[in-house]
Write a structure and sequence with these properties.
Elements (H helix, E strand, L loop, with lengths): L2 E5 L10 H6 L6 E4 L15 H9 L7 E7 L1 H9 L7 E8 L7 H12 L8 H11 L11 H4 L2 E4 L2 E4 L13 H10 L8 E7 L7 H5 L6 E3 L6 H4 L1 H12 L1
Parallel strand pairs: 1-2, 1-3, 3-4, 4-7, 7-8
Antiparallel strand pairs: 5-6
């Protein structure tokens, strides 16, 4: 039976998939995982793409038959896992909202956020408000949504985000290399199946950018960057296509 892995984006938690999970018709195991440095995953000190992929891989059995849905950074990790160099045998990847074009300002901004260090808040409410802004979920979910459950931690100095700020230090995505790796993977004669999509209003990526890598970009009309929250049924339909 094929396992479905769900990987969240930068700053978020595995709880962002709760609404999608309710819409699924997946016949096997479904696991929403926290990326290293997020939620309950703990801080690892290695947040390179390979490090993040290895941490996910360690939670899979060798040769485990999988399909992966990844949002934003999670989509990049999913494509990396599809290369065939990691434990799971990735049959298909659905990558949503992957940022494909990086400017020098983007890179500098991420490095600045990574260098700020841990920020503490006097109350959980303040920490959660910060989490929602960082994760791009402000105005999209209530504070009792599963995405918020493991988003903050109480420490001696107050409340902080569960996310390690060092996770922001990401390098620009090499989509050509990632797509080539997925296509060359030995899970099938044609490699792993890759579906790429985004919301039509996603500021991180455009249809044209997606079309440079796949013949059939999937666009959620009216959706923004977090379509797994805004339009969970649309995301579930993409997954159900794999089932069919």
């Amino acid at each position: 039976m094929t396992t479905l892995l769900l990987l969240h984006g930068m700053g978020a938690t595995s709880g962002v998939w709760a609404d999608v999970e309710r819409e699924l018709e997946w016949p096997g195991d479904v696991r929403a995982l926290d990326l290293a440095g997020h939620g309950q995953a703990g801080w690892s000190g290695d947040y390179s793409l390979g490090g993040l992929a290895a941490a996910v891989s360690a939670q899979c059995d060798p040769g485990e038959d999988t399909v992966i849905v990844g949002h934003s950074l999670g989509g990049v990790v999913a494509l990396c896992l599809a290369s065939g160099f990691y434990r799971p045998a990735v049959r298909a990847v659905i990558g949503i909202g992957i940022k494909m074009t990086w400017t020098s300002d983007d890179i500098a901004g991420m490095a600045k956020m990574a260098g700020r260090g841990v920020r503490f808040f006097e109350s959980r409410h303040e920490a959660v408000a910060r989490f929602l802004r960082v994760a791009g979920l402000d105005g999209l979910v209530d504070t009792d949504h599963p995405a918020v459950a493991n988003s903050v931690v109480e420490a001696d100095d107050g409340w902080r985000l569960a996310q390690d700020p060092a996770t922001f230090a990401q390098n620009p995505v090499d989509m050509e290399a990632l797509m080539s790796g997925a296509r060359l993977s030995n899970v099938s004669p044609n490699g792993a199946k890759v579906i790429l999509g985004a919301g039509s209003q996603d500021p991180m990526v455009s249809r044209d950018e997606i079309a440079a890598h796949v013949d059939d970009p999937r666009i959620a009309e009216g959706g923004g960057h977090s379509v797994q929250i805004e339009q969970p049924g649309w995301v579930a339909q993409l997954v159900n296509e794999i089932v069919a």
